[in-house]
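Handout, section B. The chain below has 262 residues.
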Amino acid sequence: MERLQKIIAAAGIASRRKAEELITSGRVAVNGKIVTQLGAKADPERDHVRVDGKLLHGPEQKIYLLLNKPKGYVATVSDPEGRPTVMDLVRGPGKKGGALSARIYPVGRLDWASEGLLLLTNDGELAHRLMRAAAHVQKTYLVKISGRPSEAAIQKLRQGVSLPDAQGKRSRTAPAKIHCVRDAPNPWYEVTLTEGRNRQIRRMFEKVGHHVEKIQRVRYGPLHLDVALGEYRQLTSQEVRALSAASPASSTTAASQASPLR
């Protein structure tokens, strides 16, 4: 017997967190009965589990993609405003993933105006662990700033600054690694974070009086950006193992299920 959210995540329907929302909103049924309790369990081999009336058919082949997201794409499966999403880049006409049947989705944040490395997968278990471990997985960005910040300002950002959340509650950002990689009137910095607040880098530099002109994520945990803008590739089994090890409760199960994208 396994928890329903784990069964749904393993089937590639949604991340564990999203699966919990599906359950509590009454969209999941076991053997014909709606289940809304998060502690509910089922036998994936014997019970009939349906999401929005669709019968789950067990775990899908695991897919892990590394995408170089261009500016102007939303890092979600769909967008209520009708803007292009990263799914258009992996499922569009002529793309090698165009015939992909797996319901992959992006892991973590990368805002509309930012570029760079974005992970997409249908491995709900790994996605859940990575998002839960956001404060432990290092993410590195190349950042272009308008104007030259003082060393005192950069040191302030390294130590952490106070930023409000969506409810207005203020808290200090975790220490960050920041160093200049291209000195110019509008310099470039390499910034490494161990947390993932909404628009964090932009808000950090605005805090010390500087506008961010461009952001490109070049590393996510053990992954390095190595594909052209708008392109993607599948992770190797070694990369999947390393990514799994970078999150709590790591397991090599995901890596053993990884296979080439056809």
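Note. The domain at 2-55 is CATH 3.10.290.10 (Structural Genomics Hypothetical 15.5 Kd Protein In mrcA-pckA Intergenic Region; Chain A). Compare this with the example in section A.
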